[in-house]
Each structure stands twice: as C-alpha cells, then as structure tokens.
Amino acid sequence: MLDINKIRADFPILKRQVHGKPLIYFDNGATSQTPQIVIDTIVDYYTNYNANIHRGVHTLSQEATDKYEEARIKIQQHFNAKHAYEIILTAGTTESVNIVSSGFSSLLKEGDEIIVSALEHHSNIVPWQMMCEKTGAVLRVIPMDEDGSLRLDLFDELLNNKTKLVFCNHVSNALGTINPIEAIIHRAHKFGAYVLIDGAQACPHIKADVQELDVDFYVASAHKMCGPTGVGFLYGKKELLEMLPPYQGGGEMIDTVTFEKTTYAGLPHKFEAGTPNICGGIAFGAAIDYMNAIGFKNIQDRENELLRYATEKLLNIDGLKIYGTTHKTSVISFNIENIHPYDIGSILDKLGIAVRTGHHCAQPIMDFYNIPGTVRASLSFYNTKEEIDFLIESIQKAKMMLS
Ligand code: C6P
To answer: How much is the pTM?
Structure first.
C-alpha cells in the first residue's frame, strides 16, 4: 500500500491553488508533475557542477560527464537495453522518432511499405509521411475498433514482403489503450520488418523490457515520468543504430574532420551532435530512481483503482460517453452530449481542475469517432479519490451551466 499523503508531499506543485481553489492535476498525459528530488537534482546541477560534458579535463566537466553517463546507464537498466550505447539521449519522443524516420529516408525506396496504427500521436504519423514523400514508400494503417483497440486481424492483411517498418504506440495518449505490442513485434518480424514502439504514454505506467520485447526501436520522454521537459531517449538495437546515418552534424558526433571528409563517432555520440540537455538528462535519471523507489507494481495497482473508481462515477452522469473502453491505463477521454469539450475544460479550470481538451494531437482518432475532440482526464498515482469526487461534482456543475 502506498502512503499517498507522503507521496503527495513529494510534489510541491500539488500545494498550489488555481483560481483560489486547490489544484487538482488530471493532465498527467500531457506532462507529469515533478517531485522535489528531481527539482533538487536540477538545482544541484546548476549550483554545483554546471559544465559542458565530454569536452573538458577540468573537474566540473568530468563531474557533469560522469553524472550524465550515469543517467544513461539508469535509462539502460530501467528499460533493460543490452548496452548503454544503445540509449541515445534526445530532446524527447518527437526527436527520437525523427532520428529514425530521417535515417530511413535514405534507406527506403519507392514501393516499400510502412505501417502505422490508427491510434498514433501526430509525432508518430507526420515524420513517416514526410519520409514517404521523400522515398516513395507507401503508408498503411492498422485500423481501430469502436472500443479503442487495434484490429490485429487486419494488421495481418497489411503485412507482406514489402513491409519494411511498423510503428505503434505502446499506450494511446488519447484513449489510454494498451496496445498488444508483443504480437505486433512478433508478426512484423516474421516479414523481416523493423518495429518502432512509441513508449511516451506507457513509460509512466509500465516498465518496458526492450530485450524481452525484442523491439528494434523504443522511444519515450522524461517529462511523462516525473522528469523534466526537453529530454528523452531513443533505444535502438546496436546493429540498427549503426546502420542509420547521423541525424544532425556538429560537435561531438565526429571521429575526425577535414574539409575533404568527416568520419563519425561511434554510438551513442553519432546521434548526439552539439551540447545536449545535460541537466535534463541527469534529472531524468533521478526521476527514474524516484519512480522505481515507489515501484511500478504499486503505481499500476493504485492507478487501476483510481481508473475503476472514476469510470464508474463518470458513467453515472447522464449523457456522458467514454471513448476507449478496452484494456487501458488511467486515461479517461469523454464527452457530454451536446456540449463542446473546450467549454467543460474551461469551467473545470475555473474550479482548479486541470484536464486536457481537444484532439490530443491524435486527429485521426477524433475523425474515427466523428467528434471534434474530447475532455481527457489522465490520472497519476498521486491523484486521490477525493479529487475524483470533486471532478464529478464539477462536471455536474458544468453540465448544468452549459445545458
Ligand atoms: N503527448 C499529450 O498530451 P514529446 O512532446 O516529444 O515529449 O512527446 C510527443 C508524444 C509522442 N507520442 C505520444 C504517444 C505522446 O503522448 C506524446 C505527447 C502529450 O498527449 C502532449 S501532445
């Protein structure tokens, strides 16, 4: 059992008020809140050892380099990559996907096929469309079902010997669906296709094991799992990262440079041109430690309980429809008949409740349901049943005001 009061005390922001009301933060899918230990790590970096890494012989630079490389190892161990150099530190999920898509732009040819799922975030659609425009490869889509699950039966029909890459999120940001990535990876590999899994929404809830999954690429952002914004990682199998060309040219990604020819550094530096988000990377490591100290089993149990509780109460509200009713994480996307999600979100904000409204950067899902968007309450382990009760009360209030 988690001591929720103790856990909540770790998050200073949860003490603040919004419009004179205690903050209730249900927008964890957009970004999670930051525990004091991660904030302290950031302050410690800038207070005590702020320096550029991999470049200086001086003490500060070596201390910063050691801490940054320690963070890489924490990420490696957490996601069980075989080698630390298979973890490329990036600006986040979006950049990680773009590193892979831009790399494959020079490897694919006209007529090749790639497959994405209907549940993708725009950051796992647009880069592949750009790649298709450059290469002449064809984009295919695994359709979704009314309950927010993927049609795996139709995935089988899309796969063939021309399929080179398959992309899918581990968890849908708009609906919370936990996708059957094990089956997707296994079936894609039978056709020799590589698989990239977008773990942005899974990482706060599920500890993925990249070796057990046998996934080719796995990407995520620190800010979804109690870390800072602007940092994330790309995991790739060694031989695949070696096969891809560098994403950006610049300092630290080279072996030798002359005006005639440049040779590139080995992994992971080949993909880490320029000064990285050093502090962010180190704080990402602290966030992983924090979440592991709570324990992912505890996190899942707590969030599943909150999900059950909130779902039951929400469904008692007349005219409320939840989108995504299959196996899922603690994300509840809903609408109330004849009321625009934006209007509900605005009233909830006045009452101190943060939810996200709109298409959630997943417009094809909204098109599937033929709606402009939803209200999304994404719950975290630090939320409480009392907060959910207040959400329900506030939705009722909003409904009365808007009907
Ligand atoms: N989703 C949400 O409110 P970045 O912005 O690069 O850290 O992550 C992009 C991203 C990629 N994939 C998925 C599944 C995501 O959920 C996100 C970010 C946030 O749902 C902000 S749009």
So the answer is: 0.98
